[in-house]
Design a protein that fits this description.
Blueprint: H1 3-8, H2 10-15, H3 20-32, H4 34-52, H5 62-73, H6 93-136
Helix pairs in contact: 3-4
Length: 137
């Protein structure tokens, strides 16, 4: 197992989320690689320090501030100031997809009808040719 792969697995290894085979591979690599062992110890120490920090509740108006910032950056397309959706600026993709599918189906139907109409006169002409041949004999 290479250094990058082991370093990518540090979090899962520390939490015990790796399958037994992968866990053994990481453990074996750490035992034989001083560089990765040092990186893992720093990673673990950082994580332990972060876990020891007190939990701070978010400000009560955090969600309002986030929505306000998104609204200002998207020019009102998301989280509009009014609760009525502005259909001019925001048309659901599902609606557009449905319209395109219906148009495609209509085109297919029309093409099928045209093909059927072109084949009917050909069949009629073939019948007429056959009757002309019979009238000659």
């Amino acid at each position: 197992m290479d250094h990058e792969t082991v370093m990518d697995l540090f979090s899962e290894y520390m939490e015990g989320d790796l399958d037994p085979e992968r866990d053994a591979q990481v453990r074996e690599h750490l035992a034989g690689c001083k560089q990765c062992e040092k990186e893992y110890e720093q990673f673990r120490a950082t994580f332990e320090t972060m876990r020891s920090l007190p939990s701070v509740p978010p400000p009560e108006d955090l969600d309002k501030n986030i929505k306000r910032r998104i609204r200002s950056r998207s020019r009102g397309k998301f989280f509009a100031a009014t609760h009525e959706p502005n259909i001019v600026y925001r048309v659901p993709y599902e609606f557009i997809s449905l319209i395109l599918i219906l148009i495609a189906l209509m085109c297919l139907y029309v093409m099928t009808m045209i093909t059927d109409l072109e084949q009917v006169p050909q069949k009629t002409r073939d019948k007429d040719k056959g009757s002309d041949i019979q009238n000659i004999h």
